[in-house]
Amino acid sequence: MQAILETVEGDACVIVDGDDTYYAEDVHALLAPVAEDRADLVVGDRLGQADSKALSDLHRFGNRVILAMINLVFRTTFRDVLSGYRVVNRNFIRTVPLITGGFETETELTLQALEKGMVIQEVPIRYRARPEGSHSKLSPFADGYRILITMAVLLRNHRPLYFFTLIALGLVTFDLVWAAAWAMGLLPYRAVVHAVVLAGAAAVAASLVLVGVVLNAVTAGFRELAALGRRPR
Description:
4 strands; Spore Coat Polysaccharide Biosynthesis Protein SpsA, Chain A
C-alpha cells in the first residue's frame, strides 16, 4: 500500500477493495469532504447499511469488538474502522507512512491519521454480499490477531505512556492476585520465593512506567517538531 500511495500525483486517492462488495456510485459521497477540504481521510461506514448477507455473524461480532477496543483505547467514536472504501487527500499521502500490508492496513490508515491530528470523517455507504461463487480470503481469527498486533504497535509508538502503563497495571494485578493466594495458603512456597516474585513484578512495573514517561516525552518532542515543520513559512 505504501508503494502505491507514493506513486499518486493527484489531489485525492480512492482506496477500495476489489471484491465487488462496494458500490462505485458511493465514491461521490466519499470524495466530497476531501474535495471541499473538510477532511484528510474519509471512511465509508458500511455497518449501518450493509445487506443482511454481506457480513456473517462472526464478522459482525469481530468488527464490533475491534471497533469497541479502538474507541476505548484511542478515545474515539468511530463507527467503522475496518471499511475497505476510503478516500485520502494529498496531505495524507505525503505525511502518513504505512507499516502494514494486509487486512490490518485499514486500521492503520485510520489510527495513523488520528495520531497525526488529521481530520477524519465517516460517510454512510452501502455494502453488499460478495458475488456468487467468490470466496473471501479473510480469516476472522488470523486477521483479527494481526489487527490487534497493529493496534499494539501503534499504541506503543504513538502513546507509549498509555501502552507501558497498561502492562504495568497487568503486573500489579498479578502481584495482588499472588499476594491474595499466598495469604489464603494456596501457594505453598517459602517466604523468600514470594518476596522475590512480588518485589520483582513490582520493580518491573515501576520500570515500565518510567520507560513510558521517557518515551512519551520523546514522542511529544517529535510531534512538536512535526507541527513546526507543517507551519507555512
